[in-house]
Amino acid sequence: MKKTSLSPDEMKLDPSITQKAKIAKKLANPKKNEILKQKGMHKDLRSSNLKIFGSDYFLNYELSWLKFNERVLAEAMSDKNKLLERIKFLSIVCSNLDEFFQKRVGGLKRQQLAEVKELSVDGMTPTDQLKAVRGEVQDMIETYRTCFFDDLLPKLSEKGIQIKGYQELTDYQKSVSDRYFQKQIYPIVTPLAVDESHPFPFISNKSLSFAIELINSRSNEKTFARLKIPANRNRFIKVHRKGNKVILVPIEDIIREKMDQFFPGMEVISAHMFRVTRNASVDRNEEEAEDLLETIEDELRERKFAEIVRLELDADTPKHIKKYLIEQLKINWSDVYEMKGTIGLADVIDIAKLDGFNRLKERNWTPVLHPALRHAPDEEMPSIFEVIRKGDFMVHHPYHSFELTTQRFIEEAAKDPKVLAIKQTLYRTSQDSPLMHSLMHAAEEGKQVAVLVEIKARFDEERNINWAQKLENYGVHVAYGIPGLKIHSKLTMVVREEGDELRTYCHIGTGNYNPDTAQLYEDIALFTCEETLCSDVTDVFNLLTGYAPEQKFEKLFVAPHHMRRQMTELINFEIKEAKNGRPARIIAKMNSLEDPLIIQKLYEASEAWVNIDLIVRGVCRLIPGKEGLSENITVHSIIGRYLEHSRLYYFNHKGDHKYFIGSADWMHRNLDARVEVVTPIENEKLKKYLQFAFNIYFNDNKQRWLLNSDGSYTRAEKDKGSTKLSAHEFFMNHMKDADEPIPMSV
């Protein structure tokens, strides 16, 4: 069975294609019984309803993640992007790899150390995956470094941004470097000798260091020293700026040139850079923890001293120094990634942020005020509560202003004397969040304020703990989550006294309450005061702060107790419709698609002739377009200026057109191990906007990629006669000019 090729018009949500009734093939693996008997078969799979297993049905998670990073790297390599945007993408590639090693490789290494024999759902052991990952990463390193040194650096020089070594500078520029060294570097650098009285020093995560071999000029005795490059100084030092020309020198080049000043009486034989990455995957037993906050604080301390999972090393380092480092760091040669020249290229983000080179960057985008909140210049801005009472409205960030909608919602609630209570879930926020200050102000004003702070949010634990403590100091009721679960839902509710009644207003979103990432992440959120939805949100907060294990919800999908069943029922409904010869359609947009049972159900839907389009930015373990399995599934991925972060779902549902937005991907962790909320969108105008947005994504021919059945990705091609369309550019232009939140025609 071949999936019918869809024209752009047919990709709309009411396909005109006549779907034939098909009897779904059973997804029974003929070798299922043999596989289930294999020693080490994953316990969860034995006890689940999963009937398929192995690489014929699932792509590997780690390798799929690396394919995502390849798509980001493709943006760095594309000369269709402006030069400093390409530098930015290359920085993201490197910082992504840092996180990948900390989380994913770190987790695999823990499994390997524990001699785990269980197979991943695609049939690989931890050792198999680590070997495959190393090969892919080696190729990626070669590609991104070639891109930077052979392509981007020469182009930067042509455009007036030169990166030079110390010896390439003029005398005046050297004097600027010398002054910077004496005033800004020398006083804060601490060289650490290694000898009988000085043990090998601790090397902190992602720090840049010099491995230095010295010789005593008197005794001819050789010794080793480590010198850490200060992380609180810019990586690239400006030594010349005139008009549209700037000269930068890497800080390590200045330090290398002045190295002898740290070791008077010693001769520097060699000085080569290295960088370590430490495991962020540590053990946590929340069920036995008496104090979850203390457990997380202990975890943060443990993570600082966690085992090293990667050593990036200058390839020209002498062999005996390489061997010495490997022995002292207690790692294997398979953990070493050698490279010539500058390492730690995530720091090139400093170059991308240079002032005065706007011609080399994307045009600035200022998010617009949502049409529902617009007013005449001589009119006062309406109360956001007044606007919500007129009807639900939906914001689409970063195209609509976060500051003038979500942030304003909380700020206005904090100041409004009629507001009695504010409740919010907090997963990630900014360093100095105005939202948190508003909540603290509200508590000072005597309002009941409760915040569910997720202190287990990876890499934001310390910031969230600090905010939790500050909030508590102002009288905010702070809860720290539920043992064994992360609170990932994006909810705010405001209770307001209006006449003799109390009315609840809610914000239900797909993204975090973070003003910084709201400028970079694409997300959608609903503002509503619809009574049933708001009652459900109230019940979610009661579930999180109190004891309500049997809580039921009328409209919201809430994980971990209900969402999997509800999503599965919606897919089953489409399967039934398709088998009866009626139109059946599923569209889902998410960050990652990993859950084996959902993937199995989507295969079943495909075989029943349900038309399925998935927009998956990152990891996708589903194999699309495979004969006898998934011919009717297409997987798209949008990579571009903004990080596609919204989770959107559509089901034809017998022409009822059910739409949902929320915090949950189709991943095991979202459906079974987190508190997630997905809300239906019932307003017809808002449904039309989501239909409009889907169609823009499907017609994108600049940023969209298509997943092939072999796990590779190819860029979506522009149809003959069609114009170039970038979803991000389109939404910016549309929002800037739109008098209505949705167009009159799609």
Give a verbal description of the structure.
By secondary structure, the protein is of the alpha/beta class. Helices cover 35% and strands 21% of the residues. It has three domains: 9-54 and 557-737, Endonuclease, Chain A; 146-360, Polyphosphate kinase middle domain (polyphosphate kinase like); 371-545, Endonuclease Chain A (Endonuclease, Chain A, 2-Layer Sandwich), CATH 3.30.870.10. Helix 3 (61-77) packs parallel to helix 5 (126-158) and helix 4 (83-113) runs antiparallel to helix 5. Mean pLDDT is 88; it is low at 1-12, 14-47 and 283-290.
What is the CATH class name of the largest domain? Answer: Alpha Beta
Number of domain modules: 3
Radius of gyration over all CA atoms, rounded? 28 Å
CATH superfamily annotation of the largest domain: Endonuclease Chain A
User: Helix count?
Assistant: 20
Q: In the CATH hierarchy, what is the architecture of the largest domain at level 2?
A: 2-Layer Sandwich
The secondary-structure class comes to alpha/beta
Q: Distance between the terminal alpha carbons, to the nearest Å?
A: 31 Å
Low-confidence stretches: 1-12, 14-47, 283-290
Strand content: 15-25%
List how many beta strands DSSP finds.
Answer: 27
Global mean pLDDT: 88
